[in-house]
Specification:
Order of helices and strands: EHHEEHHEE
Strand content: 25-35%
Helix content: 25-40%
Oligomer: single chain
Shape: globular
Number of helices: 4
Structural class: alpha+beta
Strand order of the largest sheet: 1-2-3-5-4
Largest sheet: 5 strands, antiparallel
CATH topology: Heat Shock Protein 90
Radius of gyration: 14 Å
Distance between the termini: 22 Å
Length: 139
């Protein structure tokens, strides 16, 4: 148990407002520390999670983040699944291109988050929403 969190079970944070993006960051940091990720890897994961939580709120209309310590038999890491029931991503290749944005940002959100983690998967369809799974492994 770390700070009231049962690391044996996935932790779910609803994303419905700006304060929830902050809560996702805090939860990811707590779980990353408990999973013994290095400080650099903790920072990369929290940065990616912050961007993905913001996208879930802004583009997906809100949703959730599920954070869990994950083991594959040889290594331990942190896996985060962001899910929303928003409009989905019409052109995934374009959305993953550096510099592309439908908002006012730099267009580094999805592509930047993808570079910060070890595994990155997007399941999306127009009208069905988006599910992004990001994993950072301990070194």
């Amino acid at each position: 148990m770390t700070a009231g969190i049962d690391l044996g079970r996935p932790q779910v944070q609803v994303i419905a407002g700006d304060e929830d993006v902050v809560r996702v960051r805090q939860l990811v940091r707590t779980v990353a520390v408990a999973a013994k990720l290095s400080l650099v890897d903790q920072t990369k994961l929290v940065t990616a999670a912050s961007e993905l939580a913001r996208n879930t709120l802004v583009y997906g209309g809100g949703g959730s983040a599920e954070v869990a310590v994950f083991e594959d038999g040889r290594r331990r890491g942190v896996r985060i699944v962001f899910a929303d029931e928003g409009p989905g991503i019409a052109d995934l290749d374009l959305a993953l291109t550096d510099g592309y944005t439908t908002g006012g940002g730099l267009g580094l959100g999805l592509s930047g988050a993808r570079r910060l983690v070890d595994e990155f998967d997007i399941d999306t369809a127009v009208g069905r929403g988006t599910r992004i799974t990001a994993t950072k492994w301990s070194r």
